[in-house]
Amino acid sequence: MSKSILNDKSLDFLESYLNNAAPTGYEWEGQKIWMEYLKPYVDTFITDNYGTAVGVINPDAKYKVVIEGHADEISWYVNYITDDGLIYVIRNGGSDHQIAPSKLVNIHTKNGIVKGVFGWPAIHTRDKSDEKAPKQDNIFIDTGCKTKKEVEELGVHVGCVITYPDTFTILNKNKFVCRALDNRMGGFMIAEVARLIKENGNKLDFGLYVVNSVQEEIGLRGAEMITQTIKPNVAIVTDVTHDTTTPMIEKKTNGHAAIGDGPVISYAPAIQQKLRDLIIETAEEKNIPFQRAACSRATGTDTDAFAYSNGGVPSALISLPLRYMHTTVEMVHRDDVENVIKMIYESVLKIKDGQSFSYFD
Q1: C or N terminus of the chain, fewer CB within 10 Å?
Q2: pLDDT tens-digit series, residues 201-239
């Protein structure tokens, strides 16, 4: 492979994929973009009733290897509309109330997008001796309407989903910035693995299932469903993890990881050690830089859903370090993106048909 594995087509796909909204429970438009890009690189697709999409290479093979990311992004729901036309919200996933004030929003309705803003009292009007912090029960959306009836005439009703419109940008040549890098970067990176396998003419002697799961942000639900459909033998999951080098993060509790220093390989009960060893040995052989993280009881990612399914599936987690998670300015380093792709790609090529990861073989 050349030093840079991302090409102009890859980056065009990444931009369109990130700029499209795919909130939890409403991922299908993003999945269509993802499947269209993946189509030349796989033999067939599997989809399910909730929107998970899977590109499959060698669908007739009995031994099945999954590489997986998740497609959904955090968002809000319309929860209550006041008589004077203001909208109060509840979370759809782990949306951060502290970043909401002064943000533009898109309210998704049957009539299309309705624009609004999270309003906040001006600094001049606030009581300096008793400053109120943004909380879920005091942030509100203003659509410019005077009454509840005006809001409803726009097509807005309780249950409408709300996303931020922030779009993809690049800072200082190699920092990718956008909302929803958590975890559409995962969907992007596994699609690039499939592309490399096709373009490099690699012949796999097992089935490779390139899985873009839904509903991770509310409890790993898409992965729970699709692993029962696929019944994989092995799963390599990619998600994001925290860069802990920015201010106000305590490394003693959060560990140390930095964007630009390589993918993060996780240690946790759900991580199958022999599979993790294969990944580490592959990274060392191929000179792919990596970092390590300990995750305690659970990884908090789709890894847990795959690992504890179907009687136990050997699973591992390769994470992309990211700054400012669950904000609209999430940031990753291009080098890390490429190295996650390389690490998954090279690890997949090391797996053999029928390979056992049992500790007793």
Answers
A1: C
A2: 999 999 999 999 999 999 999 999 999 999 999 999 999
The pTM of the full predicted model, rounded to 2 decimals, is: 0.97
Measured distance CA(117)–CA(137) in Å, rounded: 16
The one-letter amino acid code at 166 reads D
CATH 3.40.50.720 describes domain 8-73+179-350: no
Task: Compute the distance between CA of residue 239 and CA of residue 192 in angstroms, rounded to an integer.
Answer: 15
* Integer Cα distance of 9 and 323 in angstroms: 25
Closest CA to 67 of 75, 59, 56: 56
CA dihedral 261, 268, 317, 47 (to 10 degrees): -150
Homologous superfamily (CATH) of 75-163 is Peptidase M42, domain 2 (2.40.30.40)
Counting as low any pLDDT under 50, the low residues of the chain are 1-2
d(Cα 309, Cα 231) in Å, to the nearest integer?
8
- 208, 38 Cβ separation under 8 angstroms: no
Copy the structure tokens of residue 97.
């109330």
**Contact (CB, 8 A) for 213 and 70:** yes
